[in-house]
Design brief:
about 100 residues; single chain; five-stranded antiparallel β-sheet; alpha+beta
Amino acid sequence: MRKILLLGTLLIAAGAAHAEGIPLFNVSCPGNLAVSADQGGPVYINGKEIKHSAVDDRHFQVKAPQISLLISVEDDESVTVKYTDAHGASGLCEAVDD
């Protein structure tokens, strides 16, 4: 019974970590775009706040006139940001230090 309670507590804690929404990150994307977010949002592109939407608890989407982003929270809690620009070019943004 003790193991079941402990497992339940861990699952609840894990779920709470993802319930906060978008994670803290800071990346650079092609086209001189600096993209960042605070824990829970909002997302900024070159300092301008851009709306984001949750696809699910680990994926978030950002759409701006010049770029679309897919933000993924990986199993190890790292963040991957993929971009697609207005001309169809796509790839990964690179993490930068604050």
